[in-house]
Design goal:
The chain is mainly alpha-helical. The chain is built from eight helices and no strands. The two termini are 42 Å apart.
Length: 180
């Protein structure tokens, strides 16, 4: 953990003290952990600051954060799948040879893609964004196949601002799916 100011130490110490009090009725050991963390920050035991990340399972350190460009990519990918799922049946009537949509999420075996998968899960499960995509495709782990959506996403980003994008959906669904 990087250096923190005295004010930040005080805030953290107080927050962990409050969490400790809120954990009085829990029998999961959290009260003790929060007391330890409060004492660490109260006394400035810098060598133990990293215990925040090991003691609390919900904290994401800076190295694991997903930057804004990657967040935008995940949103664009889900928007693409939303568009495809909304217009696939109509496109299938026009283009009988149209391949099925296969949702490709992100690879849990890749630390970099795991960040994207965690963000996608946040969009689905916490914010309830893209409910149609979430309901239609159950496997969010791509198992190393993310290359499959790269061409599709590139094509979607290329055509989504065309004037006829929502008028010529059959044409664009076919172009996007075939861009693999």
């Amino acid at each position: 953990m990087k250096e923190i100011s005295e004010t930040e130490r005080l805030i953290l110490s107080n927050q962990y003290r409050i969490l400790s009090e809120l954990s009085n009725d829990k029998d999961d050991g959290s009260k003790e952990v929060y007391n330890q963390l409060s004492e660490i920050f109260n006394n400035g035991y810098t060598d133990h600051y990293d215990e925040v990340t090991s003691s609390v399972d919900y904290f994401v350190d800076d190295e694991a954060l997903l930057d804004i460009e990657d967040q935008k990519e995940v949103q664009d990918l889900l928007s693409m799948y939303q568009y495809l799922s909304n217009h696939f049946e109509s496109a299938k009537k026009t283009h009988e040879d149209l391949k099925s949509i296969y949702f490709v999420g992100y690879d849990l075996n890749s630390a970099y893609e795991s960040k994207k998968l965690r963000y996608m899960n946040f969009l689905f499960d916490t914010l309830n964004y893209f409910p149609d995509v979430n309901a239609s495709f159950s496997d969010r782990n791509s198992h190393g196949m993310t290359y499959a959506h790269d061409g599709m996403l590139q094509k979607y980003l290329e055509v989504r601002h065309n004037d006829d994008f929502y008028k010529e959906t059959d044409k664009y669904v076919k172009e996007i799916i075939e861009a693999k």
